[in-house]
Every structure is written in structure tokens, then in C-alpha cells.
Amino acid sequence: MSLITFLGGGVAVFVVALAAVLVYRDATRIGVEVGSPFLWAALVLLSSGVSIVTAVLVPDAPLPGVLVLAVMGPLLYLLERDDSTHADGPPDPTHLPSGSDAADNRDE
């Protein structure tokens, strides 16, 4: 294992640990509906950690697969975070989520 691989792996581990801490803190702050903050941080650590281990131990691993593994945990957390903060009512297929309520009050 070369020095560059070792340093790159160390930086990647630091970034993953920082992301897990930020996910834990954010999940505690907003109160995600599904799971606990600890489980979301563990998911980020697991998915990103597996991608780092795959990239280091299997140099011929396809890069798209490694990147999918790396972003799977944070992406799932962001989807749950968005659902926890914005899903306050039943879905309405006649309105866009970003649409304002002012359009509903106009005379046709």
C-alpha cells in the first residue's frame, strides 16, 4: 500500500466520520420520524465505510459502484429528513409541493 493510498484513506475516514457526526446532530435537532439519530449516523458510517474499504482493498472495483455505496447512506438520510420536515399533510396530486396557497384563493 502506497503512502498516497494511506493518506487518501485517512482523509476519507475523517470525512465519513465528520458526516456521521453531522447527520447525528441534525437528526437529533429536527427529530426524524423513522429510526433514531444513532441509526442514521450508523447507516452513513456503514455505507460510506464499505465504499472506502472496497476502493482500498479492490483496486479494480468499478468507480460508479463505489460512489453509489458512498452516497447511499447520506442520500437515504436526506430523503427521510425532507419527509420529516415537509410531509405535514396528505399528498395532493393537483398541486406542486412548491406551489403557494395564494393560487388557490384566486377567482376563476
Describe the fold and architecture:
This protein is an all-alpha fold and 108 residues long. It has one domain (3-84). Helices cover 68% and strands 0% of the residues. The longest helix has 28 residues, at 3-30.
Cα-atom Rg, whole angstroms?
19 Å
**In whole angstroms, how far apart are the ends?**
70 Å
Can you summarize the main beta sheet? Answer: none
Stretches with pLDDT under 50, minimum 5 residues: none
Layout of helices and strands, plus pairs?
Elements: H1 3-30, H2 37-57, H3 63-86
Helix pairs in contact: 1-2, 1-3, 2-3
Condensed summary:
With 108 residues, the chain is mainly α.
Protein traits:
single chain; 108 residues; mainly alpha; 3 helices; 0% strand
